Amino acid sequence: xxxSVSNHINKLxxxxxxxxxxxxxxxxxxxxxLLSKYTIPNxxxxxxxxxxxxxxxxxxxxxxxxxxxxSSLLFIVIVCTIHECVDHSSKIFSxxxxxxxxxxxxxxxxxxxxxxxxxxxxxxxxxxxxxxxxIQFNPKSFMFAINMLGWSLFLGLSCxxxxxxxxxxxxxxxxxxxxxxxxxxxxxGFVGFVLDNKFFLFIFxxxxxxxxxxxxxxxxxxxxxxxxx
Length: 229
What we know:
With 229 residues, the chain is mainly alpha-helical. It has helices spanning 7-37, 46-52, 55-85, 91-125, 142-165, 171-195, 198-228.
């Protein structure tokens, strides 16, 4: 990034990168705690799922999803701050990244909001009619599909176009590699979902998490340096 911008944009980029990193860590920690206390049910049908989980499981899982919801919002803030910092010749790539990033944000936020609001409240109230297609744990549900579309295709394309922006060596090279890696792992996840390939999906989850977290940490360092200049 070479553009000269005001400090408030650099501060926004720095803090959004930092908070994004922490929300990702908190999501991982909360899911780790959940897995240590509960066995994630293998979804067969709605009746079996409701028998396998209790209110505490639903509430704790919903709590974890709030962090993923916030991460989706913060991602688009990061992309927009990057757009403000790049030179004019690179803004076409950042604009395309923003477009795909908005798609990712909308799809993932819709899913998480539905999960920790409507799904949680409906299960708590005991009214589960027509709920099956809205439960994310159901791998054949509509909500699972749109969430995967956001986290695989749209996030992947957004990261690939972001990677083009960062030229040169040093930390820019690190960001470029991490963005490209994240994008490629996301596209692997997209193919894995369409082909129902569990190995591809596993690789996607690990690679995307590491790549995205690394990118956010490196970006926070870049924005911090810009604040000191």
